[in-house]
Every structure is written in C-alpha cells, then in structure tokens.
Request: fold
Amino acid sequence: MKGINSEFCARVRQLRRDNGISQSELASAIGCKQSAISMFEKGDPTKLSDDAVERLAERFSLKIENYRSEKPALPARQAPMPSRGFCPNSACPTNKAYEVEGHVLYLPDRLRADPAGGKFCAFCGEVLERRCTNCGAPVHDGAICSFCASPYIVADC
Reply:
C-alpha cells in the first residue's frame, strides 16, 4: 500500500509474533502469499494490496492513518549500500583460492580488504577494485561477475 510507512510493517510483525501466528497462517487469513508477508514485514509496504493492508489493520486493531507518511516508503533493499572494494592481487591474504573443475578461482573477502571504505587494500596496499574489470558492473559477494561471468581476480603468472 502506498502512503504507509515502515513502522506499520514493523508493528504488524511484532503483533503477529506476539500472537504466535506464522507468516503462512497470516497470509492465508488475509488472502496473500507468505512471501509477500515476509517482504512486507521487512519494511516494504508496497508488497501487499490496499485490501490486504486493510485486512491486516483490522485483524490487529491498527489505525492505518496513524502510520501514513508524507513520502512514499522505499523498499529496504533499495537503500544505498556502501560499496566495498576487493583486492585484485591474487597473492593477497584477503583472497581465498579454491579450485573448480581444474580452474583456480579466488574468493575476495571485501570486508577484510576494505574495512574502512578506503582506496587501498588494508593488507597489501594494492588499489582496490569496486567494479568488474571486464564489464564495469558493480561487484557483489562472490568470485565471478554475475553480468559477464568473468572472474574478479585472475592468477598472477
């Protein structure tokens, strides 16, 4: 529902737990999917229809108008996350080597390499990468870019 804030979502979650109701039971009672309840409780009020939100408010005796926000609420997953860099040096202790079908890959530990959001690796001093060196996509946790399937770290020869 547009126009309600994430406090309503948190209040519904607390009341559901206090009453010993599972997400699946609540979803059945108001006519939606369990996954929609889960996303709703995490702070995204747009995951339920207006009717479902009204049924929730009625079930838990909440007044929707007390939870209106001036601005539409953004889903929690859209909040900006600080981007940590990874060390491209395969010999750096922040990168863990492992083998897959005869190929050596390196799993970067971005938190160890970039604990303070700096420019250089905290262990070896190498300039940190924040984007895939092949396609330029933002990096994520893992060893391989999900956009171009290139490994983030190539073994030094």
About this structure: Residues 83 and 130 are 7 Å apart (CA to CA). The first helix runs from residue 6 to 18. Helices lie at 6-18, 23-30, 34-41, 50-59, 110-113. The first strand starts at residue 95 and ends at 100.
